[in-house]
Amino acid sequence: MNTKTLMAALLLIAAVAVDAHARELVVSEQARALQARAINLDTHLDTPALFGQPGWKITDRHSYAADGSQIDYPRMVEGGLDGGFWVVYTGQGPLDAMGKLKARDFGLKRLGQIREMVAANPDKFALATVAGDAARIKAEGRKSVYISMENAYPLSHDPSLLSYYYKAGLRMLSLVHGSHNDFADSSGIAEATAGEHGGLSEKGRQLIIEANRLGIIVDHSHASPEVFDQMIALSKAPIILSHSGAYDVYAHPRNLDDKRLKVLAAHGGVIQVNSLGNYLVDTGGTPEYRAELGKLYRSFGGRGEMSAQERKQAMAQIEALNTKYKIRKATFDDYLRHLLHILEVAGWQHVGLGADWDGGGGVVGYEDITALPKVVQALLDAGYNEQQITAVLGGNTLRLIEQVQALADPAAVKAALE
Amino acid sequence: MNTKTLMAALLLIAAVAVDAHARELVVSEQARALQARAINLDTHLDTPALFGQPGWKITDRHSYAADGSQIDYPRMVEGGLDGGFWVVYTGQGPLDAMGKLKARDFGLKRLGQIREMVAANPDKFALATVAGDAARIKAEGRKSVYISMENAYPLSHDPSLLSYYYKAGLRMLSLVHGSHNDFADSSGIAEATAGEHGGLSEKGRQLIIEANRLGIIVDHSHASPEVFDQMIALSKAPIILSHSGAYDVYAHPRNLDDKRLKVLAAHGGVIQVNSLGNYLVDTGGTPEYRAELGKLYRSFGGRGEMSAQERKQAMAQIEALNTKYKIRKATFDDYLRHLLHILEVAGWQHVGLGADWDGGGGVVGYEDITALPKVVQALLDAGYNEQQITAVLGGNTLRLIEQVQALADPAAVKAALE
Fold first, then answer.
1. Which of B108, B121, B165 to mutate to test the interface with A (most CBs of A within 10 A)?
2. Chain A from 238 to 297: CB within 8 A of any B CB
3. Domain total for chain B?
4. Which range is the signal sequence, renumbered to this chain (chains A, B) (predicted)?
């Protein structure tokens, strides 16, 4: 029995134990009290994709069953989420001049929508740019809005726009999404074009250097393993994986293997555990299924804008495809398996939560942000103490924000804020 | 007695008559009722320069005496202003790469502040982009926020950004401010560098062509007379002077001469009368005064951002300089003299109001927007009827918005809004 086989066997035993436990998981007062004392952040909130939908309001209570949404103010209150990184996400489109221009305009618009949401709800939300903001904003009874970018495609036409994003609050940046672009190679399979850079391109390297200079956290999620290695080598500040899982739990290219998890931790970084079902378990999807799914996703349009109606229709189409191919649905236990494994390998000081809410995240038993207290309970049950759980809930993210900003070039920061 | 001398004499007589009248001007119920029926727009509101000031709120009532400000929601209600064009103004700075980048970031930030002001006050303000919006928004009991840009300096680094500004609501664009830039020559004297283009540069011509394609109104104010001639020749849509005066009333390069006023009208354009004292009358300023004033303005910083404290201090410094040089203060009568002359020369269908509130406008007796009804009364007293006055108050501007958009390239508009 080699190491890998042993580990798989152990994981199976752990999985069974966790499954049996989580089915009857009841959130204790202890867990709720701990959460109330902690700062609870999720580092990948895709909810801004909903901000442009006519009639959709973050102050209304929605339900996952009715419209597939997972985050709004009432549910954040119920789930005890104090805020997080709200994402300027841009689906990868053509890398020609027109595609880059459209992505630029799209990114600026989405950035504006995030800021306008905060402006419209000053009693409930506040922009956050430094680590200390989160505690202050929580004490004021409001929710933190840190801003991040997923896929640097909006910077492709003109990377110098990063200075404006920084000025407008951007503090985290990923380079690539589901397919390769001119900054970096993607971990994507179905959607991937031919690998172009063997990791980072020169343009991608320059963007990381500039992010370092400004104190913007570099985010690896969605990039290839080679990009991870090169980011670690290049970035003078620790990096984040804002929403990723464990490759050694489920060998999906979106996940990070144990060896790299240890490198990440040694470099001071943090991995925020993702809850997107396809990356958590082998759902039984065949190559045919993945091809059909990829085609379906592409049919939804390149830049992530959907009306409520289109969204509902898209969910139904995916559901129909899943039924046709008898796709297994991931559960809360599957999510916990990744979380507990990563905690074990990377250490509690290097793990957090990035469930990809409103971006594909959420599994059976963990459908929206109201279920967050279950994670706290599960961590207590797994034997983690308050200090450790507080770190996972947000403390590690705040430490990273602080570290990355401390390593920035003060002259560059001053010039960008002028 | 040649024509010019005759005209000067006539103007003097008119001035005395107007002066005698306006001193005792009382706003009638008729004027107020007319204003309530009309749509009252000002095409150059520099108030966004205040949006970034900590603690300044457009919903609070301020006073010109206390802080020099001239527009806020309570005073708009009192003065009967239904909205207008809110300006992304950028003071001209260096034309090197860094200056252009800083201007780009500054413009995007100011644009964001305008949109965030609207987002923060959805019961009082609404974004407006087409002519029909103004009546609807007034009927809803709100104020219209059309967006314009004064000085295309923020587009200097990358003119293709115009597509994003358009998407974000920009519907009017001037090329240049107090000194020449890479788009066009300025009418500025004290601040001017050497004339560079003899009017428009090729880059300026391309920007006008693109504005035409998108249905963005081209604004001549602050540009040189040669730029006016070239704009008229080039622009396939009528143009605006968003805040200018009559050169034949006071020969200041910021004003437009009668010959050009007639060309403007024949081309279908509109001139919105400015109330900035230095452009209305000979204030007795010597070259020494102007040199000192220019130096003072430059000391306020290049990009128009001032704190309340700095603003107050700046006003006091200007006031001290004016006292030192015994500068004559322009009055409401001086303003009316320009307005009535321009009405006479261009015709009532080609005149409107652009008082440069919060951007240097306002004279003795016309200090802030609460005085707007005095203009209505003065026009009634001068014999203009309701149709004509309604056109001046906003109808002509709305017609221009509609005309310019009707002449746009539908494919370009569709692509920009995608």
1. B108
2. none
3. 1
4. 1-22
Give the pLDDT confidence of B101-124 residue by residue, as tens digits.
999 999 999 999 999 999 999 999
How many angstroms separate the first and last alpha carbons of chain A? 61
Contact B308, B53 (CB under 8 A): yes
- Contact across the interface for A164 and B104, Cβ inside 8 Å: yes
Burial B347-383 (b: 16+ CB within 10 A, else e): bbbbbbbbbbbbbbbbbebbbbbbbbbbbbbbbbebe
Mutate to test the interface with B, among A108, A109, A167 (most CBs of B within 10 A): A108
Q: Give A194's DSSP letter.
A: -
**Identity of the amino acid at B119:** A
Cβ–Cβ below 8 Å for A117 and B119: yes
Is A84:A43 a contact under the CB 8 Å cutoff?
Answer: yes
Q: How confident is the model at residue B12 (pLDDT cuts 50, 70, 90)?
A: very low
Find, in chain A, the residue whose alpha carbon is nearest to that of B115.
A116
Cβ atoms of residues B398 and B134 within 8 Å: yes
Q: Would you state the torsion angle of the CA atoms of residues B199, B361, B21, B77, taken in this order, to the nearest 10 degrees? A: 120
At residue A332, what is the residue type? F
d(C-alpha A393, C-alpha A385), whole Å: 12
Q: Which residues contact B191 (CB under 8 A, 6 or more apart)?
A: B92, B178, B179, B294, B297, B298
pLDDT at A17 (0 to 100)? 46
**Chain A residues 90-119 within an 8 A CB cutoff of chain B:** 101-102, 104-105, 108-109, 112, 115-117, 119
Give the residues across from A256 on adjacent strands: A246
Q: Which of B237, B244, B241 is nearest to B268 (CA)?
A: B237
Look at residue A2 and tell me whether its pLDDT is greater than 70: no
Q: Identify the pLDDT of residue A416.
A: 87
Pairwise CA distance, residues A311 & A328, whole Å:
22
Give the type of residue at B170.
Answer: L
- Do residue A163 and residue B122 have CB atoms under 8 angstroms apart? no
Q: Which domain holds residue B126?
A: 3-417
Q: How far does A160 lie from chain B, in Å, by closest CA? A: 8
CATH number at residue B253: 3.20.20.140
If we measure between CA atoms, which residue out of B405, B385, B386 comes closest to residue B397? Answer: B405
